[in-house]
């Protein structure tokens, strides 16, 4: 009886070829990208005193500014609520069409998904810049931006939820001859409603965060004041705005997390 | 039996019966507040012509801008955007590791001061707007892509640190125990068990964050932090819609490519 052969590692594993190749690739990319961006740590250290001056100013928030920004803070939340609602409303039909268990037509489904993928590639500030050009400076541009931004996100979340539903009730209704709309209303909707609301609230959280900077390009809300304070080098006001935004975001997150826990 | 029955048929309390109405009232109140509070500027008189020219511009992109050899064209600025995102993400991933160990709440810990404080710091970093960071760094290092790199590397710590620390909390401790029971000391456990167990997840999260950083890098230029955003905002301000169209197209293609590539890599990792 021959002794069992000791398993041999192929040379690729023995000399860690792929690990070394990846490391070299990443190091080369790092060097190339630091050349492309002109990154220079020494320059940052040389100018560090300017940065510290800025930080010192920011660490003395001008609390009196709080009374000025209460109204725009409300406006930010209002923009987020309306934008998310409009986006989610448009997302429902699209997500129904993109769900593979409801729509058998593969071409239509993939076209819808491609469209949703395209919408999701656009960063929110980019949309804001374009809509400010169309609708003028103000919260209308912000609401539209947030609506499109949340439409892309919500519809993906929604159709993924729809694809996980139990098909039993649908088949039962189909077998007694119910129409498509009736099936969606009585068999699909009750199964997904809670998760829809949960994702809606989650998107609202993200939109409140997003809407605080949209105003930087003129799309209304607290961002307008953010830009104003930064342009006037009034960093103690900037600090108040950031802190107030932080509080608002945390309150909204807390409320929405609580509601989502209750729902699910 | 009696008790369950009586429970079932007990008349619902007033609150239980009318709860839905309270919710409807709250929701209506919220929407009334939201709609009433906003001043809709309405459509500007120029909106029709502007959107017409936008659509026309988007349908006839300025193809000459793709490459003109000046170094300020779409392809070189796209590469610059990717470079900003890549450098920022890698730097941030390295800085995030100590933050992750700081914020991770591991099993045999009595009091949560360490992990709790780490989590608060990470939340603060996450909520600090990236644009403001970019503007702060522009003051320090001047406008350009370096400010964008710095903004992304600091801002990403918030999310990467959180994701890393969560994967540390949920990681499989089997390999660590095996090394310990074979007599390994703490550094050996760390190098031979902790790092190999956690590495695929860390890399996967870093790739995911890179996808987000590409989007950020393409808009940070709007405030002067380098990349494709700078010509974009100039083109919008000068109403050069064919130029906007080609840049939008460039961003869409770039983001789609990076997303697909990174998704493939992440699938192979985990």
Could you give a quick summary of the protein structure above?
Chain A has helices at residues 11-14, 17-37, 41-46, 48-58, 66-98, 106-121, 124-135, 139-162, 168-175, 180-214, 222-231, 235-263. Chain A has 264 residues and is mostly helical. Chain A: The chain crosses the membrane at residues 20-46, 80-104, 125-149, 183-201, 208-227, 233-252.
Task: Jot down its keywords.
heterodimer; A: 264 residues; mainly alpha; MetI-like fold; B: 270 residues; 11 helices; flat; transport (chain B); membrane (chain B); Phosphonate ABC transporter, permease protein PhnE (chain B); MetI-like_sf (chain B); ABC-type phosphonate transporter activity (chain B)
Report on this model:
The complex is a heterodimer of chains A (264) and B (270). In chain A, 40% of the residues are buried. The radius of gyration of chain A is 26 Å and the shape is flat. Chain A has 12 helices and no strands. The model of chain A has no long low-confidence stretch (mean pLDDT 86). Chain A is an all-alpha fold. Chain A has one domain: MetI-like (MetI-like fold), CATH 1.10.3720.10. The mean pLDDT of chain B is 85. Chain B has 2 domains: 2-37; 56-269, MetI-like fold (Orthogonal Bundle), CATH 1.10.3720. In chain B, 77% of the residues lie in helices and 0% in strands. The longest helix of chain B has 35 residues, at 186-220. With 270 residues, chain B is mostly helical. At the A-B interface, helix 2, helix 4, helix 5, helix 6 and helix 7 of A face helix 2, helix 3, helix 4, helix 6 and helix 7 of B.
